Amino acid sequence: MGVDSTKAKATVRLKFISEKQSETVFNSLKPEIKNPSTMRYRVNLEKEGIFLVLKIEAKDTVALRAALNAHLRWINSVLNVLEVLKAQ
Prior knowledge:
There is one protein chain. This protein is an alpha+beta fold. The chain has one domain (about 5-85): 2-Layer Sandwich (TATA-Binding Protein), CATH 3.30.310. Helix content is about 50%, strand content about 25%. The protein contains two helices and three strands; from the N terminus they run βαββα. It has helices at about 20-35, 60-85, and strands spanning about 10-15, 40-50, 50-60. The protein has a three-stranded antiparallel sheet, with helices on one face. The longest helix is centred in the C-terminal third of the chain and has 27 residues, at about 60-85. The radius of gyration is 14 Å and the shape is elongated. It starts with 7 loop residues before the first strand and ends with a helix. The model has no long low-confidence stretch (mean pLDDT about 90).
């Protein structure tokens, strides 16, 4: 997807409780970001200490919303798993 075909963009900066937690979430999302399920959007994920920066560029707002929702749900799922593991 070229820059000319990008119609919608979003940047989300997420703060985690520790660098270890941000690293775990970052590593968990890497496979999805390397191999997106569609060509309608492009995702970039950067780690900045205890922060993750999720940048999404999409061909339209529908694709942007779908990509944003999917990635935020995956992040939430990873955090839920970490909470369950911590409780054991």
